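SEVERITY: medium
COMPONENT: batch folding queue
REPORTER: lab tech (J.R.)

DESCRIPTION
The queue accepted two submissions in a row. Attaching both inputs and their returned structure tokens so the on-call engineer can compare them side by side.

ATTACHMENT 1
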Amino acid sequence: SFSMWRPPGYPSFIALIFGVFGRDNWLAIVAIQNVASFATALMIAWLARLLGGALAAVVATALYLTDFLTFYYTDAILSDSMFTLMLVLSIVMFTQAFRRTPTSCTYLLYAGISLTGATYFRLASVYLSYVSACLAGVFAWKRERTNVALVKTVIAVGLPWIILGGAWYVRNYEAVGDLTFTSEQNELFRQRSLHMIASLEGVSKVEASNYLEKYLGGHGKNAAVNFKFYEEHPIVFVKSAVTDVALTLFSPAQWHLDRYF
């Protein structure tokens, strides 16, 4: 059945594994995710060694491999290990690009492809390609002092997302008339607004849904309406964002840990 709730990367990954190793072969998925996690650890070690030498490489790799949530997600049927692999791979590609003089557009293109791949696995990086393209462009300009370097860098990083990400936007628009990467993307705006409304009204997040008409005119999943709401309440928005980041950093995936403690 048609769905646009999740990005297509992980379902395609599972379909590929089932096609090669047999239907419902969940062990094969976990095994390959462990290989992906090991590859991620090697890349982390390489990056840390560049930054701080052998000791930094050992510490960084140990922190990654002994993290409980890393172990949990690697051995669960979840997209996190593949997403992390693609995200760290993009950092490696950026590093390789800027270690060369002049900056390597080939590695920048690989970085853009890796970022797009990460977004195909998880929505979390959906806007990261735009930010990365701009930051890489500025860095290339400061390094080479030419507008050509800036333009080439932005195009090399952003082009994979424009083509591959854009194709999925078009697919969803043709199917349901909604220009969005996933339906979860619009739900993120709604959840942020509910958190803010709860703070403004002094009610729980569940009760805040009763005030959607008052603040958003009932259009809780419309991006433009939500952005306007954020502009009208900037302090509450910043407070909500900081709170969510703190929860992510200091109590990540707490709902998965309940069964263990």
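ATTACHMENT 2
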Amino acid sequence: EDQWELITGNSMTIDHSAVIDHLSQDIGISKTVDDVTVTVDSATAGRDCFYVLVRVDGLEFKSKHGYDFRDVSLTLNPTPDSALTGYGMEYWGIDDDKRAVFLLDYSYSGAEYLDLISQNIQVDLSLEDILQDGHTDKTKTLKEASWYFSFILDYQKAFDTMTLPDINATQDGSDKITKLTNIELTNTGIHYQYVMDDMDNLPSFEIRAIMKNRASIDLASGIGTPTDDNKEMVMSYVWRVPIKINELDYIQIGGQQITVK
């Protein structure tokens, strides 16, 4: 809920909060190295993705800086079969207890979605070295250490889905039109596919979820994989924060608006 307010500037409704609570599960595992404590706070699971909320305590964090881990390593057991996977860690800010807050998002594409649903998944997460202003010419290592976590993610919780009509979307940076089919919306992401004209020049589209309160939610990450016949590309994207479908006004894709009813 804190992340929702940080992004949108709006408070989350009670119903929306209930959806997040339903999809989320407390983890509450902390590891301390030399008075620096990293906590895997909670996780939120979607159809083909999940988010992990991480907090760091024991260092002096300042709002004028950004923070990062030098290395983030994540593995699942079991892993989705025949899937392309991706994950990333994003710094969110400083909470009321002066802890740095990070959100890790993991997504996969190309596997049968039932690979993860209706079973428990073991997640092994390794975090190494805390950086200030990472990936800049002012990068400073605040703490050289490693933190290791292993926890179970429950994938047996239901989530909402909605099928949207096919559209002709305008590609980013051009006036070329691509037909998007099999568009499916979930609490945690959006999925679609299209015919590949040029494997070396795949199209991209601006995608946003516009809520009824005018909050605008963009994408955190995405991944794609070709169909078995190598003629179409199947794309899976993760919202920056989970949404409540019946509080959506419309989805914006490539200059087109799809009203959600």
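NOTES FROM REPORTER
The chain has a mean pLDDT of 82.
No errors were logged for either attachment.
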